[in-house]
């Protein structure tokens, strides 16, 4: 038997809230998606004025990160021409291989879900996603 842990709704909402607070702090508008351990949408927020096109990107960043349990930026580094994951973004119905998606990892190292953020520069997206992921890292 395999025992798994999963993010609950209350924690997923705290992740969204922390990410949205960080986005407001750095004066940007974001779409924020939190997935459970099975890759299913658990919580989502579209900040007022956030781009509509970033909804899909945020969800795909979260999904990409959960599918491979690594930051999407790391996947991007590996998927450059001649890299070992070149063209991976064409698999699994479309992945995102630039920063803004992170696994949600509990203090004991267990992955319990993922977060994907989109709406600004990839640096801002990563910063906002990290603020959300930090909530779970403390549990």
Overall geometric form: globular
Q: What is the percentage of strand-forming residues? A: 15-25%
Give me the Rg, rounded.
14 Å
User: What structural category do the secondary elements indicate?
Assistant: alpha+beta
Q: Describe the sheet with the most strands.
A: 4 strands, antiparallel
Taking pLDDT < 50 over at least 5 consecutive residues as the criterion, the unreliable ranges are: none
**How many helices?**
4
Question: What's the structural domain tally?
Answer: 1
Please describe what this structure looks like:
The chain is of the alpha+beta class. Helices cover 40% and strands 18% of the residues. It has a single domain, classed as Haem-degrading domain (Beta-Lactamase). Strand 3 (101-105) and strand 4 (111-118) form a beta hairpin. Helix 1 (9-25) packs antiparallel against helix 4 (122-137). It is globular.
Summarize, please:
The chain has 139 residues and is α+β, with helices and mostly antiparallel strands. It contains four helices and four strands, in the order αββααββα.
Note the topology.
Layout: H1 9-25, E1 31-36, E2 41-46, H2 53-68, H3 72-78, E3 101-105, E4 111-118, H4 122-137
Helix pairs in contact: 1-4
Relevant terms:
139 residues; alpha+beta; Beta-Lactamase; four-stranded antiparallel β-sheet; 4 helices
């Amino acid at each position: 038997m395999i025992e798994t842990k999963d993010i609950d709704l209350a924690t997923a909402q705290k992740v969204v809230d922390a990410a949205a607070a960080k986005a407001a702090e750095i004066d940007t508008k974001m779409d924020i998606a939190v997935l459970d351990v099975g890759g299913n949408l658990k919580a989502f927020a579209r900040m007022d004025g956030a781009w509509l096109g970033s909804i899909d990107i945020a969800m795909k960043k979260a999904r990409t990160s959960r599918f491979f349990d690594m930051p999407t930026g790391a996947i991007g580094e590996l998927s450059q021409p001649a890299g070992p994951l070149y063209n991976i973004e064409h698999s699994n119905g479309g992945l995102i291989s630039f920063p803004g998606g992170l696994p949600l990892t509990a203090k004991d190292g267990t992955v319990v879900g993922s977060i994907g953020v989109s709406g600004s520069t990839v640096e801002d997206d990563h910063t906002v996603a990290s603020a959300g992921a930090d909530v779970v890292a403390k549990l």
